[in-house]
């Protein structure tokens, strides 16, 4: 199968066109003087149109492609199902590939073969697409050498697969919004989210206190205990914050200078209430689907600033090199046991179950990471 | 009366205590080897407690005070009734003098007499308290030489009396929030407010387009015409902006990079809708008493930033010299006919009517400026 499809098979990445999968599409084969490196055929989760992910995402077999001289063929090891992956398939994410497209945006793989002029990578190396890019839900990916960032193989694959979206978001929000010093405090809602868990641990590693807001839910004491074990100073449910003087709950912790909001609605208002004079709230999600509401006096007299953070935009502004350095820092923290979060490895063969879990159809579940 | 009260009479400014007005309060008169300069007795609008301004503000006679060697006695010429003056009397403004206190925060006066070591000012000079300070609603004020900023006597007194709060707010918001270049655009609601009128004209003088939002009201065409005569590029009522694609109304004007909100509620949402990707909205008032509501995607994907502006805070951060330079610039624009706004001079004797007008009890009225 590899040979007769040769290098005229479709590319797997951005410009993937499943309608070309069946053959050479009438193009003539070109004879080449040297033997071309080709990828193995690949299996991919493809959506042909936007829609409900469990309706439109299908397993598709993709023929082999040529690995050009500057390209690297990577055998994917693991890739997560992130909420933004789901939103891209649904067609509600502002920047998304046009269908038909392969799902997924980050992951980790092992170099399978390299083009003739590739010098920085060798078969067996572990690599991640950095900055992350579309189409990681497939068994083999061929992309330019520059796309791949070599990482230490000592990291558990599920962490390598998930480091470039959520932990990097947490690190950038902590380091690039305002200057925080050891002893300062931050406040966040959605503290059990993957970014939330990373914020707690990354703050802790810098001596920054964290005040955490979570939903009222069954088993709340266990959740609080888990977040405190990660380094959370304070954890409150939204109901516990229905008090007159919210800041009396801070105890000895300074009023937070920075807040993170991934929920909106009342949970965002609670973050604003905790902030100190002149504080900043950064919105990076809206899980409640409710807007953020702010009083006039919060702006004028409390001097609060509100802004957003979007990893994809940050990465689009010539930050590739800087982000790779940050990813290496994050992976070192993982290896040192200072950065942990809950994940579940799901076999690729059972992608549908993993997707159902990611879609919330099976109750609260850990982050689903596909193992190829 | 001047002589027998001497220099033991109460100070008129921050620490004014009306209970001392009646006499020497049991203190002995001190004989001095040189003749002390004393102010004339003063008449002031005083409130003894926070409350409804038309109930608590009273005309009080204040005895003469000594003019110390570094002090200047100023005969006030004019002072406005600003909304923030009313809020201070009501006790709802975050920074306010403790009652009993004299009302007012800005104004213009003529130097009446100076202390023995004062060299920068002479009787007859026109001065304004800069930065503005409490207690301008009185006929004579004695304060340190440094408090007073000498201005050109060629400016109409009602402009000199009103330049340090609203026009300075407009200028600072235009110049200190983001960098704007000629050809850029701003959007604002509350465009008929005094700050709004100044924004239009100051933007125009720098080649910056303004998009203006006003309330639906009787005589709206006349209001639009007046704002356009000032230099407004576009003026819309809120109802006119209930359209699907608000930006189609911009015509050839670029999407605004900066927005000003002094209303809140829907009028603030309209400002946000007009803003370009990465734009900033500055809130400096909340006339509708409704909060600002912002969607999650406005923060994340449209990358909007929201903040506040408060003149009193800006002035508190060592900006006295800079603000005097800006006031001189604004007064020059007034003299050149490039900065105009509607005011009504009201005789001090009829303060109560002016206050009723400022409180909105007599319908829509121009800014009330007391003439002493």
TrEMBL record, chains A, B:
Catalytic activity entry: a 2,3-saturated acyl-[ACP] + NADP(+) = a (2E)-enoyl-[ACP] + NADPH + H(+)
Chain ranges of the Enoyl reductase (ER) domain: 51-370
Keywords: Fatty acid biosynthesis, Fatty acid metabolism, Lipid biosynthesis, Lipid metabolism, Mitochondrion, NADP, Oxidoreductase, Transit peptide
Protein name: Enoyl-[acyl-carrier-protein] reductase, mitochondrial
Stored InterPro entries: ADH-like_C, ADH-like_N, ER, GroES-like_sf, Mito_Enoyl-ACP_Reductase, NAD(P)-bd_dom_sf
GO molecular-function terms, A-Z: enoyl-[acyl-carrier-protein] reductase (NADPH) activity
Domain of life (superkingdom): Eukaryota
Family affiliation: Belongs to the zinc-containing alcohol dehydrogenase family. Quinone oxidoreductase subfamily.
CDD domains to which the protein is assigned, alphabetical: ETR
Subcellular location: Mitochondrion
Record's GO cellular component terms: mitochondrion
GO BP: fatty acid biosynthetic process
E.C. code: 1.3.1.104
């Amino acid at each position: 199968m590899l040979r007769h499809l040769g290098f005229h098979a479709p590319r797997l990445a951005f410009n993937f066109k499943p309608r070309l999968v069946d053959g050479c599409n009438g193009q003539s084969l070109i004879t080449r003087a040297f033997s071309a490196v080709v990828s193995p055929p690949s299996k991919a989760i493809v959506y042909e149109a936007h829609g409900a992910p469990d309706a439109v995402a299908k397993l598709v077999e993709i023929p082999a492609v040529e690995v050009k001289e500057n390209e690297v063929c990577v055998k994917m090891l693991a890739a997560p199902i992130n909420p933004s992956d789901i939103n891209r398939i649904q067609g509600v994410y502002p920047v998304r590939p046009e269908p038909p497209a392969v799902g997924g945006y980050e992951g980790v793989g092992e170099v399978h073969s390299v083009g003739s002029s590739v010098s920085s990578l060798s078969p067996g190396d572990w690599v991640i697409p950095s900055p992350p890019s579309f189409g990681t839900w497939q068994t083999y990916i061929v992309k330019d050498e520059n796309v791949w960032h070599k990482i230490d193989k000592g990291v558990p694959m599920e962490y390598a697969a998930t480091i470039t979206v959520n932990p990097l978001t947490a690190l950038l929000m902590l380091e690039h919004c305002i200057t925080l010093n050891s002893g300062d405090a931050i406040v966040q809602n959605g503290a059990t989210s993957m970014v939330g868990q990373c914020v707690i641990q990354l703050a802790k590693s810098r001596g920054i206190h964290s005040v955490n807001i979570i939903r009222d839910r069954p088993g709340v004491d266990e959740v609080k205990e888990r977040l405190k074990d990660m380094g959370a100073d304070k954890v409150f449910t939204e109901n516990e914050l229905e008090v007159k003087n919210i800041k009396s709950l801070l105890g000895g912790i300074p009023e937070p200078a920075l807040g993170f909001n991934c929920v909106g609605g009342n949970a965002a208002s609670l973050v604003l209430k905790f902030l100190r004079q002149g504080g900043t709230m950064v919105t990076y999600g809206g899980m409640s689907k409710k807007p953020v509401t702010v009083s006039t006096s919060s702006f004028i007299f409390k001097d609060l600033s509100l802004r957003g953070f979007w990893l994809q935009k940050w990465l689009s502004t010539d930050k590739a090199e800087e982000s790779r350095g940050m990813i290496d820092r994050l992976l070192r923290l993982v290896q040192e046991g200072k950065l942990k979060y809950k994940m579940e490895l799901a076999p690729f063969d059972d992608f549908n179950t993993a997707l159902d879990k990611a879609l919330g159809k099976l109750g609260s579940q850990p982050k689903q990471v596909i193992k190829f």
